[in-house]
């Protein structure tokens, strides 16, 4: 079977369209969940730095900004893991089905 014929079968498969839609929506949602807090944090740092410079305890040296930044970074790592998990599960299963149907 020629390569263009397989590509045409894949593109015409409704499961492929479903895969593309699910993967795109999921990636956009996760991107927003990571980027909105990050850019909000950067905006606050640039416009209202005194908010994040507030000390957590009287006489302490740790400010509110440190744990907030840590949560944003660790959250990004965790959401990357969520994407990889779903990509290796649901998305790979749909991809295998589409490829199996296209190779018939």
Task: Give an account of the 3D structure.
- With 104 residues, the chain is mainly α.
- The protein has one domain (3-102).
- It has helices at residues 3-12, 14-47, 49-52, 65-102.
- α1 packs across α4 (65-102).
- The longest helix has 38 residues, at 65-102.
Q: What key attributes describe this structure?
A:
104 residues, mainly alpha, 4 helices, 0% strand, rod-shaped
What is the structure about, briefly put?
This protein has helices at 3-12, 14-47, 49-52, 65-102. The chain is mainly alpha-helical and 104 residues long. It has one domain.
Overall 3D shape = rod-shaped
- Reading the helices and strands in chain order gives HHHH
User: Total strand count, please?
Assistant: 0
As residue ranges, the low-confidence spans are none
Q: Sheet with the most strands? A: none
Q: What's the number of domains?
A: 1
Mean pLDDT across the residues is 93
- Give the strand content: under 5%
Query: Into which percent range does the helicity of residues fall?
Result: over 70%
Q: Helical segment tally?
A: 4
Radius of gyration: 22 Å
The separation of the N and C termini measures 9 Å
Q: Which structural class best describes the helix and strand composition? A: mainly alpha
